[in-house]
Design goal:
The protein has one helix at about 20-25, and strands at about 10-15, 15-20, 30-35, 40-45, 50-55, 60-65, 75-80, 90, 105-110, 125-130. It has a four-stranded antiparallel beta sheet, with no helix packed on it. By secondary structure, it is mostly beta strands. It has one domain (about 30-130).
């Protein structure tokens, strides 16, 4: 089977309208991961995520299969623990780590505490937007 290209400026759905293709290329998430951060860390679902590194309690790194073009991408994270009803937040809050184009660092912590005690949440989600290398 021959490989080829499909070139289009607009994608059109029969009932949902149309979309300029630049939004698909520039606006789509370039990576995401949903993983278990409690016990044995394990990826549940992902796109462009090769592995998760468990750096300690509530401290994780998502390693990308294909790197971003630079370290100026946007990464968003959330965490939750439905089994205990615990309110948990996730953020890239470690100022001692260097942001890299091939990995995203995240901390999960109790949201109601002033000292933000790190916590191994059952569900951690990360989404990354930007340009791939």
């Amino acid at each position: 089977m021959a490989l080829g290209k499909i070139k289009a400026d607009t994608l059109e759905h029969s009932t949902a309208g149309s979309l300029d293709t630049q939004y698909v290329v520039n606006g789509s998430a370039k990576a995401f991961v949903n993983f278990n951060g409690n016990g044995t860390v394990a990826i549940k679902s992902n796109l462009n995520t090769s592995s998760i590194t468990d750096n300690g309690t509530g401290d994780y790194t998502a390693n990308l299969a294909s790197a971003m073009s630079n370290a100026l991408y946007t990464g968003l994270a959330s965490a939750r623990d439905v089994s205990t009803g615990t309110n948990v937040v996730a953020a890239d809050g470690n100022t001692t780590r260097t942001v890299g184009a091939s990995a995203f660092h995240v901390w999960a912590a109790f949201s109601g505490q002033s000292n933000k005690t790190l916590y191994d949440a059952l569900f951690i989600d990360i989404v990354i937007h930007g340009d791939l290398a």
